[in-house]
Amino acid sequence: MTNTPTEPRTPLVYIVDDDQDLRDSLAWLLESVSIAAQCHAGAEDFLRHYDPKVPACLVLDVRMPETSGFQLQEILNDRGITLPTIFVSAHGDIPMSVKAMKNGAIDFVEKPYNPQQMLERIQAALRSAVQVHAGMEQRKQLQGKLSQLTSREREVLMMVVDGKASKVIARELNISVKTVDVHRTKIKDKLGVSNIAMLVREVLNLTSEDVAERSHRP
Question: pTM of the prediction?
Answer without folding.
Answer: 0.68
